[in-house]
Amino acid sequence: MRLTLQTPLDMHLHLRDGDMLKNVAKYSARDFAGALIMPNLTPPVTTIEAVNEYKKRILEACGDENFTPYVSLFFKESYTPRFLEQAKPFISSIKLYPNGVTTNSEGGVTDIDTKRLSPIFEAMSELGIPLCVHGETDGFVMDREREFGAVYRKLSDTFPKLTIIMEHITTKESVELLKTHENLYATITLHHLLITLDDVVGGLLNPHLFCKPIAKTYEDRAALLTVALNAHEKVMFGSDSAPHPVSKKECCGCAAGVFSAPIALSALAGLFEKQGKLTNLQAFVSDNARKIYNITPPKKEVVLEKTEWTVPAAFDSVVPMFAGQKLAWSVVSQ
Ligand code: NCD
Ligand code: ZN
């Protein structure tokens, strides 16, 4: 059995920089036509020059693959409407991190005050720049996303023309918010469709499934599956593939992030097939994102085949999701 996907997109991807970028970019570039690249480097991507130089380094790391990097700019309170106007042609979104909630988010926003930040959000609304948000408070780990719901509601109500992407949603309340607020959209990861907190800490601790936001309950996962498998038009695939060297994962003080880029498409095909929803995968991994972001990436066909393969234990010293396990679908060509 074969499946051909047209122009698959990963709308939340960490490619890092330097050697890590050189090691991991090829996996996304092989399987996807493009991706929204997150700006949480050290230092973060906050200037037009940094965006353009980062794009160049990404393209270099992708070699000859047909792959479009859509780069997101790291939200700073100091941005002016004039700067945003100049940045608009070079960026695909602005990513807002509450200060300190995840990897390299120091320098994020401490207080998401819709009054103080209104010139930025108004300018983004006018210019049509989507706002991507890491939606977690600094509360109890299982409640952080739920608590952040109040901020999403306020942003959505105050700036109705702003496209707001709730990144990597993990709760049933976030799924509900999508339905009640017209300008809210969401990315959903592969791992949050497959695992719950049980898989992270319920048995022996699995650091390779530890990520922000932490995987939640069975009920939350069921809500995510319903909208993803039915390719609800307000959700799109964003892997949040976040590679860390094995030494930063298998240690005390394990870094947050699941490395899923090399297995994402084949695991998604397996999941959608098992649930009898294979025909909806095209919309979930491409069509919805193209509409939400209003983008037309260069065409790329990616063919999958139902042929079992074993996921390697590591890719260049980064341990992937499903390391050593068998997956039913393989990416065979472009
Ligand atoms: C991401 C990373 O490592 O950059 N980690 C994660 O657990 N998802 C950051 C993020 O998206 O929160
Ligand atoms: Zn991320």
Question: Top keywords for this entry?
Answer:
334 residues; 13 strands; TIM Barrel; 12 helices; 36% helix; binds N-carbamoyl-L-aspartate; globular; binds zinc ion; eight-stranded parallel beta sheet; three-stranded antiparallel beta sheet; alpha/beta
Protein model, in words:
It is globular and about 55 Å long. The mean pLDDT is 98. The chain is of the alpha/beta class. The strands form three sheets. An eight-stranded parallel beta sheet has the order 2-3-4-5-6-7-8-9. The protein has a three-stranded antiparallel beta sheet with strand order 1-10-13. A two-stranded antiparallel ribbon has the order 11-12. The protein has helices at residues 18-31, 48-62, 81-87, 118-127, 144-158, 172-180, 190-194, 197-202, 218-229, 246-249, 264-274, 281-293; strands spanning 2-6, 9-13, 34-37, 68-74, 93-96, 131-133, 164-166, 184-188, 235-237, 301-305, 309-310, 326-327, 330-333. Strand 6 (131-133), helix 5 (144-158) and strand 7 (164-166) form a beta-alpha-beta unit. Helix 1 (18-31) crosses helix 2 (48-62). It has one domain (9-296): Alpha-Beta Barrel (TIM Barrel). Helix content is 36%, strand content 16%. The chain is built from twelve helices and 13 strands. N-carbamoyl-L-aspartate (NCD) binds next to loops.
